[in-house]
Design goal:
Elements (H helix, E strand, L loop, with lengths): L6 E3 L4 H10 L3 E4 L5 H6 L7 E4 L9 E4 L2 E5 L4 H6 L1 H6 L1 H7 L5 H6 L2 H7 L5 H8 L3 E6 L2 E6 L4 E3 L2 E2 L6 E8 L5 E8 L9 E10 L2 E10 L6 E4 L7 H8 L10 H27 L1
Parallel strand pairs: 1-3, 2-3
Antiparallel strand pairs: 4-5, 5-10, 6-7, 6-10, 8-9, 11-12, 12-13, 13-14
Helix pairs in contact: 7-8, 9-10
Bound molecules: flavin-adenine dinucleotide.
């Protein structure tokens, strides 16, 4: 299929993009187009105007500072994945990005676009949520920072206002006594996960002082479950809070089974990771 007709604007400054977005109720931002263009072609979205942000300056950065990694709105998944500094500061970025689609899609799709697209089957919204990151957004009304815990409103729905552009995502760095791990099950490598689980663990010597799990494809929004007091059976605690659903790819029962298999495995891997970093 072909998209419904739309106007197209390629602004060369953020101010111009924000003014256009504020002035056109039916407008949508176009970043890498790897989610939006298929939606247009299937006529599941029919914006009156596309505001292509690819010519905006100063948004392609992957910047590592003491507190973590800042990813600009035009940094492609592949560029974030290629940054060894980013991987050192927050290893979960690389662990998860390797599972995001295929190289061709990662070369064009943006990590920030994936986050604000808010697909509960996507890896990076969950990673941002698990690490307690945030997104900086801009509009003609000014700038604000949205913590990941307040970013995901529902299936494919973020809490950005219509006239806001996400300019940067912030992923906190990994503390010295902390560890992370990620695993997912997909039919083919690069497909969306049937279930994906990440773990973030903090340790003090041999003791695990904090442990949380983030889940992909088992609820409407990215969900994080604190399993600090359920280290013996993290899957039972998680399943009490998750809502796996049947779809054409897998049954709810199979997804629950994958949670039971992956949760303890990923928790153990993150604990080993923390101990190897501390030791
Ligand atoms: P676009 O498609 O340009 O935009 C997506 C949405 O976000 C639109 O609503 C757009 O208006 C909005 N948006 C984008 N950027 C901004 C911004 N800066 N400010 C405000 N709004 C913005 N993703 C995964 O996570 N895991 C996978 O396994 C996976 N597999 C894929 C397989 C295929 C075959 C394809 C085609 C895609 C797959 N993707 C997967 C999606 C891919 O990761 C996309 O890159 C990502 O979802 C969206 O990023 P984008 O830059 O392409 O955004």
């Amino acid at each position: 299929m072909k998209p419904a007709p739309f106007a197209y604007l390629r602004p060369s400054s953020l101010e111009e993009a924000l003014a256009a977005l504020a002035g056109e109720q039916g407008a949508k931002v176009l970043a890498g187009g790897q989610s939006l263009v298929p939606l247009l072609n299937m006529r599941l979205a029919a914006p009156s105007m596309l505001i292509d942000i690819n010519a905006l300056p100063d948004l392609g950065h992957v910047r590592v500072a003491e507190d973590g990694v800042r990813v600009g709105a035009l940094a492609r998944h592949a560029e974030v994945l290629a940054s060894s500094e980013a991987e050192r500061a927050q290893p979960l970025l690389g662990m998860a990005l390797r599972h995001v689609a295929h190289p061709t899609i990662r070369n064009r799709g943006t990590t920030v676009g994936s986050i604000v697209h808010a697909d509960a089957a996507a890896e990076m919204p969950m990673v941002l949520r698990l690490l307690d990151g945030s997104v900086d957004v801009a509009s003609v009304r000014g700038r604000r920072t949205i913590p990941a815990a307040e970013l995901f409103a529902g299936p494919l729905e973020s809490t950005l206002a219509h006239d806001e552009v996400a300019v940067e995502a912030f992923f906190p760095g990994l503390a010295p006594d902390a560890g992370v791990a990620f695993q997912e099950i997909a039919r083919r490598h690069g497909d969306y996960a049937l279930v994906g689980v990440a773990a973030h663990v903090e340790t003090d010597g041999d003791a695990v002082t904090r442990a949380s799990l983030g889940f992909v494809s088992v609820s409407d929004v990215p969900v994080v479950v604190d399993v600090t007091h359920a280290l013996g059976d993290p899957a039972a605690k998680a399943l009490a809070e998750l809502d796996p659903a049947d779809d054409i790819h897998a049954s709810a029962a199979y997804r629950a089974h994958l949670v039971k298999v992956l949760a303890p495995r990923v928790l153990a891997a993150a604990t080993d990771h923390a101990r190897s970093r501390a030791g």
